[in-house]
Amino acid sequence: MEPQKFTNTKSSVEESQSSPSALQELFDTTRTVSTSESHLYNLARQIQHNLEFQHAWGEMIIHDHSPITQNKLPRPLIAGLPPKRLYIHPDEQIELLKHEKGEISSHPEMEWVLPTHVTENWSLQALAEIFDAVETVPPLSSHSLNQNIDKEVGWQWRGPHRQKRLLLATLHDDSTVVYYIVHDGIVKPRQN
Fold first, then answer.
1. Which of 52, 60, 65, 192 has the most CB within a 10 Å radius?
2. Whole-prediction pTM value?
3. 3-state SS, one letter per residue, for 138-159
4. E strand or H helix at 60, and its extent?
5. Whether domain 39-183 has CATH 3.40.1350.10
6. Average per-residue pLDDT in the chain?
7. What is the pLDDT of residues 70-109, one digit of tens each?
8. What are the sequence ranges of the domains in the chain?
9. Burial class of residue 155 (count of CB atoms within 10 Å of its CB; 0-12, 13-18, 19+)
10. Alpha carbon distance 12, 103 (integer Å)
């Protein structure tokens, strides 16, 4: 009986361990040009990756300087365009019903996203610093707002007329992300 000859082939397990994940490829191909601490910038990139590939967001930019003052932000923020509107103001819902226009504008709006980790503790003062450093609506990239927004029902609650808000993205250790809408100030509750 002749001994078997083995060739040097990798098993599928070895190949999957050696090929980087999509997130790792993003980290490897994207140069870190941020002046923020690298762990905060990597957190922002992980949230950006989740929004892009799990939630179909587009036109995302990581900001580490305030668009208002050009000063460094306390941490990186993401500006992006969700596939559909994330929030409808309660007064806008009432206005739409009064005009017998039950459908909600399908035009998405640029949103701010604040990347955080579940182990972080946030205070109202820390959130206020973030809100003070950003505009109501993130600066647009190639996306242009609907030019007739002022003629639509509910225009006063959209675009630059809306209340300042951001999407608080909280990353857990198991890579799941939870999103909360946070407003600057008090929002009138919805009427039932």
1. 60
2. 0.70
3. CCCCCCCCCCCHHHCCCHHHCH
4. strand 58-65
5. yes
6. 77
7. 999 999 999 999 988 877 766 766 676 666 655 555 578 8
8. 39-183
9. middle
10. 50
